[in-house]
């Protein structure tokens, strides 16, 4: 099914999404990759506040290339989500609404998605230049010293993703393989 949603994403909206749905996101999302996740984890464990309130927010695992003249961002393709698996359950337990990346997630992340009524989306790997056209604004909001791995606030319009793991734990990567093997 094709759906259009607003970000940040509410738990009610996340519950409507099903594994395999094509979704177009409009609104505000944030970028964070390995180094930013590590720094957020250190911040949490020092008992300090994160540089953003992650309640219902969407984090896109992406580090952009430099923007060309007249563009807010360069190529903006997803990075491998499993590299954030050691950090994701805690962020989900703190209220993170959704994640965008590519590739499989471990069982602890799947369990946290279910426990928190969240969702994991996949963006198309290798299509960073096309995805960047859906990004209307980009602003570094934290960890500027990390360069491309800084946390950015993005304003997106009809940003295309696919629901991989829905809030019930249905996993497109598993169901698609089973469906393919039956044919």
UniProtKB/TrEMBL annotation:
- Taxonomically, the superkingdom here is Bacteria
Q: Read off the InterPro entries from this record.
A: Fe-S_hydro-lyase_TtdB-typ_cat, Fe-S_hydroAse_TtdB_cat_sf
* Positions of the Fe-S hydro-lyase tartrate dehydratase beta-type catalytic domain: 5-175
Which keywords has UniProt assigned to this entry? Lyase
User: Which NCBIfam families did the record assign?
Assistant: PRK06842.1, ttdB_fumA_fumB
Q: Which family does it belong to?
A: Belongs to the class-I fumarase family.
Protein name (Swiss-Prot/TrEMBL): Fe-S-containing hydro-lyase
Taxonomic source organism: Dorea acetigenes
UniProt lineage: Bacteria, Bacillati, Bacillota, Clostridia, Lachnospirales
């Amino acid at each position: 099914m094709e759906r259009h949603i607003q970000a940040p994403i509410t738990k009610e909206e996340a519950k409507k999404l099903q594994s395999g749905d094509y979704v177009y996101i409009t609104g505000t999302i944030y970028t964070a990759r390995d180094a930013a996740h590590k720094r957020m984890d250190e911040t949490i464990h020092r008992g300090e506040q994160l540089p953003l309130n992650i309640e219902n927010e969407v984090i896109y695992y992406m580090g952009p290339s430099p923007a060309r003249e007249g563009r807010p961002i360069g190529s903006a393709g997803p990075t491998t989500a499993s590299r954030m698996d050691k950090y994701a359950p805690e962020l989900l337990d703190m209220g993170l609404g959704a994640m965008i990346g590519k590739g499989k997630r471990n069982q602890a992340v799947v369990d946290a998605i279910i426990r928190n009524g969240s969702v994991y989306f996949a963006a198309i790997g290798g299509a960073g230049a096309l995805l960047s056209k859906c990004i209307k604004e980009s602003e570094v909001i934290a960890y500027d010293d990390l360069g491309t791995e800084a946390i950015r606030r993005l304003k997106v319009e009809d940003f295309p993703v696919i629901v991989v793991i829905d809030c019930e734990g249905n996993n497109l990567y598993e169901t698609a393989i089973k469906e393919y093997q039956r044919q």
